[in-house]
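Annex B. Sample input.
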Amino acid sequence: MLKTEWLSGQEAREIEPALSPYVTAAIRCETDHQVDNRLMAQALQRAYQGRGGVLHQNSTVERIVIENGTATGVQTQDGFQGADVCILVAGCWSGQIGGLPDTIIPPVRPVKGQMLALQMREGITIKNVIRTVKRRYPMPVYLVPRTDGRLIVGATTEELGFDTDLTVNGIYELLHGACEAVPSIYELPLIETWTGLRPGSNDNDPILGKTPVENLIYATGHYRNGILLTPITAYEISKLILTGETSETIAPFQLDRFSKV
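Annex B, continued. Sample output.
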């Protein structure tokens, strides 16, 4: 449980002076943290390869190979790759991987998110992660300061399939919400915009654990919390592979919960 405290608008501005005078209250969480997802991915790659892992980059997985009810590997554009255990972690594309029986195709859809980055300058900076709420702001946004001086602003939530177009409306809504919270960022340079596709399940909770196919495990559907849930997902799936037992932690998130509805 994270420790939090209520603050008045004035108390919030004493911590983060750039906040708008219209901010009348805030919730502070000193133990909340952030991670740069790009740097984290690079670190994980180095750690994996440093321990002897083989990474097949830019090699499309065409299908999971299942023989006599057991997953034996994956067929890629570069040939067959055998495996003792196959873990489906293809994000919002998890339901499009070939070879899966119709009855166990994971109900995962893409949820589009547009984001942008500003370059902070002397006198126009923030030090803490700021999240707005819908009551006051046109669209809830978060502002995340990075150690390299970037200020990340995100993110839209759009049910538009696999569309990855940046739109005027999306970027406007992000900037509108961010400027309502921190007016001084009007003067900052806009240095990057991008979109991503989150994997949302039917109930927007992860899909974790064994499947009716032997040696096939799912770890997908994390929606907006992929980075946050990466450590616990990796730990629990590793434990499942090593022990063969589904822990109480991931038991509620198994695929079969959708067939019980």
